[in-house]
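Translate sequence into structure tokens.
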Amino acid sequence: MHGGRRRLLRALGAGAALAVASCAHSAGGVPIHRISAGQLQQALSARFPLRRSFGAALELELRTPVLSLLPERNRLGADVSFGASGAALQRAYDGRFALEFGLRYEASDRSLRAHQLELRALDLPGLPAQGLAMLQAALPQVLRQAVGELVLHTLRPQDLALADSLGLQPGAITVTRQGLEVGFIAQPPP
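Result follows.
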């Protein structure tokens, strides 16, 4: 074998090994891309603090959420401290809320996004009960407007290289005790 051809084969082999190393495989041999809880938290932290105004009525400052994995429900949780002010509240308050949400894949930008937000708890010390009830009722809608489907992680082209070469695309997203596992399904025909 010629030296140039041998180097080319070695380089191709090394590239294939790197592609395979970036994805684990399920029992059926289909690639699975794993994202650790730490990677998720780091990516989310880069997007905060987040400030949103709703006219003069309400202004929110959302501080960096602390994520929790909820594998038994295949969802994620987030504990978020925040500041709220505006005419609707008459003064500034600091509090926290807890959310639970599902995940979905967005192919246009290769992102994993939070969706189906559910408010689980709201604590806003000092806010009168009537104001707390009003905020509790409005907060899920306010959060949908403020953050929409928040991007939690973006897959890099190299994360999808092996799957793309096999005609696969991200499918099911499974929450585990260590983080997320992104499974792959066949790409639809063009």
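Note: The chain has four helices and eleven strands.
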